[in-house]
């Protein structure tokens, strides 16, 4: 009996010693190994909650509550970032860094989910419905219905980087998957080509894009090519007119479309996409307002006058979107060498400087010609102080920010000063030297340790309780957090010592 007790004690001691040694080894394991393990655990969790490869924006930890921009169901996935395309891009990044096929499989599943949600008009709505009965209400291209009835949903959305993000992800996937092809990739390539063709078809004769498009060819006689100008008068209250067909810069609709065309040209070499990007640039030249406000509006009607959109978006010029237009014009100049794209820039920079509310602060909207800051609300009226705006609109719309304008001004002035050749020479991509990699790894290490430490046993990053969305209170599992953390882990693994 004593011998048996002794043997049991020795076995327990050996097991405890082994466990302690394993724990110690885990603690001293290279951070790169811990990062790779965290990447696997987090993506395994994402696979477990995906709906046929697609994702929403956020989930309650028990998965009972699911949200995109709105409350969603278990049979829906979201397209609008940070939804399915955003996660798909993160998976591709993980595959590129690690060469682990599991990440390419996740990206492929996300791509196939988007293929199922592609509309006959070529793009995507904000969400994709995967329930068979509910899908009958939609005009999905994959259903091959003979016609689109008036009640069906067939509206491609270019607002909020929706369709554009899906196409750019598919472009990246098709390009990346060449190294490890799969029979299902043919359908993804077909979807991509169809979507790019329809995005070109959605472009107006003047090079602009609408906010949304139902696939109906444009009436060219109703869309003359003309310069932007100030209207003689305009309604001070929203007239409830349909603004979906307006030439739209709001929320970077035009910028995202042009950048998608540029990327399509770069990845495929097909010249029609570069021509579409250039036509988009031509629209930006036409859309610059004359003095005293030589910047851009959020949206324009067919007469090229700034126009109403939502109840809180009156005709105006806008600092936020104008800053993004300047960035895009610089990029078009650097990509093509056409100096016409930078001709509008000096006047726009001068307007930014004289229109700041205080150093580094701008109003988003400025009244036409008077240049007074203005604000909108759900009462459909123009307001001249932020205090007049309801709390809901005051806190849920970016009325006063820096909007990145100081950095835009700095970059633009540098490009104008040194010219395209010197700028490109100074920004030519080059592999990092060993000492640069080491410095970058050291810079990322504290954040990587924080990310690994916050990952729970199930492979989740859970945001604290208290955040409320659509009337529902957290905690939440947020795809925006997953996307950021996965990319940080990948950035570290790319430079960390192996």
Molecular structure report:
- This protein has 498 residues and is an alpha+beta fold.
- The chain has helices at residues 2-28, 31-49, 84-98, 101-117, 132-135, 162-176, 185-201, 253-268, 271-287, 319-336, 345-355, 391-395, 405-426, 434-454, 479-495, and strands spanning 58-59, 66-67, 76-78, 127-129, 156-157, 212-213, 247-248, 299-300, 317-318, 362-363, 365-366, 373-376, 382-383, 400-401, 462-463, 468-469, 472-473, 476-478.
- The longest helix is centred in the first third of the chain and has 27 residues, at 2-28.
- The radius of gyration is 26 Å and the shape is globular.
- The model is unreliable at 6-27 and 143-151 (pLDDT under 50).
Question: What key attributes describe this structure?
Answer:
four-stranded antiparallel beta sheet, 498 residues, 2 domains, Glycosyltransferase, 15 helices
The amount of beta strand, in percent, is 5-15%
Spatial strand order of the main sheet: 2-1-18-15
Distance between the termini: 51 Å
Q: What ranges have pLDDT less than 50 throughout 5 or more consecutive residues?
A: 6-27, 143-151
Cα Rg = 26 Å
Instruction: Write down the domain tally.
Output: 2
Q: Tell me the number of strands.
A: 18
Q: What is the arithmetic mean of pLDDT?
A: 91
Largest sheet: 4 strands, antiparallel
Query: Helicity range of the residues?
Result: 40-55%
Overall geometric form: globular
Structural class: alpha+beta
The tally of helices reads 15
